[in-house]
Amino acid sequence: MVFLGGQVLPGNVGRAILGPFADQRAVDALNHSLGVDRPLLTQYGSWIWNFVQGDMGTSYIFRSPVAPFVIDALGNSMKLAAVAFVLVVPIGIFGGVIAALNLNRPLDRIISLGGLSVTVLPEFVTGIILILIFGVWLRWLPISAAWPRDAGFFTQLYYLILPSLPLFLVLFGYIARMARSGMIEALDSDYTRTAVLKGLPWRTVIWRHVLRNALLPTITVIATQTGYLIGGLVVIETLFRYQGIGSLIFTAARGKDFPVLEAGILTIGIVYAVATLAADFLYSVLNPRIRLGTDQ
Amino acid sequence: MTEPAQRLIGKTGKTANALELRDLSVAYRVGGRNRAVLRNLNLSIGQGEAYGLVGESGCGKSTVALSVVRYLPRNGSITGGAIALDGQDVMKLDAEALRRARAESVSMVYQDPGKALNPSIRIGRQLTEIFELAGISGQAAEDRTIAMLNRVRISDPASVMQRYPHQLSGGMQQRVAIAMALANDPSMLILDEPTTGLDATVEAEVLDLIAQLRQELSASILFISHNLAVIANMCDRVGVLYAGMLVEEGPTDAVFNDPRHPYTVALLRCLPRGGQRKDQGRLDTIPGFLPGIGADIKGCAFADRCALATERCRTEPPPLYDLADDRGRRLSRCHYHEQAQSLPRATPYNVALPSRQAASPAVLRVEGLNKTYGSHGHLLRAVKDISVSLRPGETLGLVGESGSGKTTFARLLLGLVPPDEGGMIELEGKALAPRLESRSDEQVKAMQIVFQNPDSALNRSHSIRHLISRALKRLAGLSGAALEARLNDLVRSVRLTERHLAVKPRQLSGGLKQRVAIARAFAGDPRIVVCDEPTSALDVSVQAAILNLLADLQSKEDVSYIFISHDLGVVRYLSDRIAVLYLGRIMELGPSEDVFAGPHHPYTEALLSAVPKLDQAETARIRLDGEIPSATNPPSGCVFHTRCPRKIGPVCETQEPPLNEAEPGHSIRCHILYAELARLQNKVVQPEPA
Amino acid sequence: MSATDSSATIPAPAPNDANRRGPLAEVFFSLLRSGTFLTGLAIVMFWVACALFGEHFAPYDPLADDIINALAPPSAEHWFGTDQIGRDVFSRVIVGSRDILTVAPLATLLATIAGTALGLFTGYFRGIVDDIISRILEAFMAIPVVIVALLAIVALGTSKTTVIVVIGLSFAPIIARTVRAAVLAERQLDYVAAAQLRHESALHTMFVEILPNVIPPILVETTVRLGYAIFAVATLSFMGFGIQPPSPDWGLSISSNYGMIGGGFWWTVLFDAIAIASLVIGVNLAADGVHGAFND
Ligand SMILES: Nc1ncnc2c1ncn2[C@@H]1O[C@H](COP(=O)(O)OP(=O)(O)OP(=O)(O)O)[C@@H](O)[C@H]1O
Ligand code: SF4
Ligand code: SF4
Ligand SMILES: [Mg+2]
Known about the structure:
The complex is a heterotrimer of chains A (296), B (690) and C (296).
Chain A: H1 2-8, H2 13-18, H3 24-34, H4 40-52, H5 67-101, H6 106-119, H7 123-137, H8 153-187, H9 190-197, H10 202-239, H11 245-255, H12 258-286, H13 288-292
Chain B: E1 19-30, E2 33-45, E3 50-54, H1 61-68, E4 76-85, E5 88-89, H2 95-104, E6 106-110, H3 113-116, H4 123-133, H5 138-151, H6 157-161, H7 170-182, E7 188-192, H8 200-216, E8 220-224, H9 228-234, E9 237-242, E10 245-251, H10 252-257, H11 262-270, H12 311-315, E11 321-322, E12 331-332, E13 364-375, E14 378-390, E15 395-399, H13 406-414, E16 424-427, E17 430-431, H14 441-446, E18 447-450, H15 454-457, H16 464-476, H17 480-493, H18 510-521, E19 528-532, H19 540-557, E20 560-564, H20 568-574, E21 577-582, E22 585-591, H21 592-597, H22 602-610, H23 650-654, E23 659-663, E24 666-669, H24 674-680
Parallel strand pairs in B: 3-8, 3-9, 6-7, 7-8, 15-20, 15-21, 18-19, 19-20
Antiparallel strand pairs in B: 1-2, 1-4, 4-5, 9-10, 10-12, 11-12, 13-14, 13-16, 16-17, 21-22, 22-24, 23-24
Chain C: H1 17-20, H2 23-32, H3 35-57, H4 89-95, H5 97-125, H6 127-142, H7 145-156, H8 160-187, H9 190-196, H10 202-239, H11 250-257, H12 267-294
Helix pairs in contact in C: 2-12, 3-5, 3-12, 5-6, 5-8, 5-10, 6-8, 7-8, 8-10, 10-11, 10-12, 11-12
The complex binds adenosine-5'-triphosphate (ATP), iron/sulfur cluster (2 copies) and magnesium ion (MG).
């Protein structure tokens, strides 16, 4: 699909790279050297075959293999995403749980409306505001994510705080909201009533009976956010001038560098698929109804 | 067994009642206003007593239960009065004391056990945690759990402990819930509709279990149910709740045999009892509705619906008159309690008997109908080899427990799902295409349905006028003035009025909605109407009115019914012939009276004996054990052999018995010979009445 | 402690106040009582007014440059300062809502129509066609909007129409999924079988019987999507793929000025960022109100 995207792009690749004024012969030559004049299916087959072997083709623009770019960029993006994720999952869930336990009280209102507000802001908007506050006025954090060469783990982390914050905010509202509604449903359920009427202490009711059922849906949802996260990365990496897969794709798209674009997007697709699989797996491990099926 | 009610409160633990409600008032906050649900309710349950609370849906029964355990919905609050458990004021308890009370002295079991158990925790753990609360842990807790599961007659408790709730059947789940409730040996056990929604044979088992446990344990019981017969069999005393007030109270048999409040009198008349049939007279009904929550009640709450009401009733709220007689304390909240039983009927008894032509040709013939669903790689035979026929003006009742294929059969007839290859459905002598789309308009309008749940069956976006006119347009091909005229006729014949036409379904009560559904089904003058549990979602008073309506329409229009229900009393009232289904097969088919009178199939026999009855003293009961097997994996041989109390031997396990015609028109699928069945069941085989 | 009695039934239906009004009227009245909705609506109406009549009360022509006064900080003359070529930031912020408030609603409308149609058909016919379409839509949803947009815009070039089509078509599957789920639930209800038992056509059943009942989830989803459409338009403009110069669009302004925030010219981006934030939050507060009103 991604590949087809690259193919239906305007007319032909050579023309797209060389621009409308190039000589037709030059275009043909380029097309031939790039192999794009072979039939579509052949191209597709050989491209996929090469891809799985780790050969992602050659960049039209840099005239050098794509794979190293993509792998480097993916690594960088993963670091950024990991920082955001590690922060947001526990904090988001905690926020949602606290809101549900204080339903309709001021604390709930603050978390819910605050969460809703930050979750809907475009990353570049929160990014800009955060840069202004922490980078320009307070000068606590670097405004670019490009850390110096040989930076150690903590330095890298330091550089990643600011870029990860907009992602954090968007995900926070989302996760908190899911966790909150899951909690409300579980708190209202008959099995919670059963647990309370057994005379179990409130803590035990929450920890043993409510939380697990309440958070199951949230866990699936978190994994489906990988897709969103990648979109967010494109923006954040551009804003913070960070060499990740997002900015790679962005640059490739602007420069119409199709091999890079295709490879980048296919990589994203794979990451997405893996994340979804992981979520399904986790969900079925936690949910006995799926794990065991009904045996009657 | 009945103790005189003890009115002494707050004395020492010994004399205190197990439960005492004094002037309890509860309200729910809706739309910014507190709306009263319970109004100054007084009620006491003695030590070891089983007290039944009955009443129509919405009268506040569950609210009583939830108040006692202080677990009202978020918007509910106790607005007055006191609740004492064993003399201890529940409302004064702090959080910790309340928790201890729940842990030690009061337990509750409610409807829908599937939801009451935590889906992600093993059964064993859900039980051991109760013992851990009491300081018993580890192996000791496990042992106690096994003992408790044994006590609720669960075989192989060790393996059940390893399971999750969804791996148990409904009946098993409810046993586990009961085990959980009894684990801490409570002094007060509250059961809120514990068997509603369970199949008849399973319900009977659970009720038996509760009755047996009562003998073994000391708990007092508050048993809540809308089913009068269940209460009659389970309780010493009964209270009738109406609009959040007790309207009558007394020993169970006294109240049910000699009611002293018009509401109780009317409720009892709504039930088809003692084998009453449609050609013997109409059921009585109760007009009107229960006052909504928060309603402003001036005089007697029942006045709007009471045929005895006078001016005094509308202005002066009746107190709870004490009618103590030799059989124990009686209370009735009626100014004219001594006349209660002379309450005039709301529906006249007499009926115009239909002139039945005996030998008219069948309107519907079904031959060898099968339906197999594929489910998760298994084959599920929902309907197996069903052959029946239906004469004009006749009602064929279909009874069976869940999974017996009743609804699937109905859908096959209507063409909503296609049957397997090979079967045959014939309408007025012409074969019907398996799929609805390929049937002619004539054929489609000849067979219509009244669904179980009118909320699902009536499009909530459309007005009643639209719903019925559309049916008239499509089915009767009417339009313009002719349509208007027919619409008015039709609406009147289901006893709705012009006023109802403008509204949307949600503005009508369940009973009125069902009338709309009936009007719609009759729009095209159908030959056959399938009624799929049309009254199971309704209260008995409303049910009676719907049954009357169906009977009247039938005698007027000469339409045939296929009437599906799990309620044997209802089926018996309406049906001329009955088919008993089990796992998709017809086990018995015959004239209604023969099927009920016997000799019957062992399954029918068990089914009949499972139903709690109001009038009869307990006879020797037949109880089925074991689960209803899954239709994906039906037992070999006779599908009933896993539960059959009369099983004769290996032949039952290896060979499926044929559906033998034992008497003319009465067939039974069993290896036991008819005469032998008669002997076993102490029945005399009667020659068929002409 | 909190709980709801799930076994409680709807009260006996003596007609009362709540029943006298139609369901939509009831939703309307509960909207009027919702503080969240009214706050959101007020914010949105403010920006709509700016879009419609902005020129009349903007102190300067938002497009007029004034190189001498370039990059002037906020002052009495220029409340929000001036940008790189001396344009008045205050006037630009006021008029800047116009493009986004045209593009985003149109994209949402497109998404709603396409999504509703798709959802109705797939949900109604089920079966293989539904399976195939649903798989495709799922795959489609896995790709972040930004990336779809990137590809499409590389292929089609930038214009408002492209942006509308891209966002509309990327959101359509999401709306389709909501509608399909609602339709599948309706399809189980017996009134659909009743319609078949009158030999109604598929179109009648879909549009006359089912559609009115799935309007509430469609309305809720549409308002939520409008928020995301604004999010997406702003982001695309920021990335240079959306609204094009010389429009005073907020995202575009941030994009052309944020390179200089290191130099302390905060006013060139902050006010635009706040404007976007307020509009997005306004729409989402209103959406949250609508959601609440339908789910009471
Ligand atoms: N949380 C609530 N908010 C508002 N009204 C409620 C609530 N819970 C119950 N009600 C209403 O209060 C009345 C009494 O409810 P309750 O559940 O006690 O009745 P019930 O007799 O148990 O009915 P059923 O037989 O249907 O279980 C009903 O009209 C019901 O609709
Ligand atoms: S008090 Fe009057 S209205 Fe009430 S039940 Fe008795 S006779 Fe009927
Ligand atoms: S065939 Fe055997 S198992 Fe089946 S009903 Fe008859 S006696 Fe019971
Ligand atoms: Mg109840």
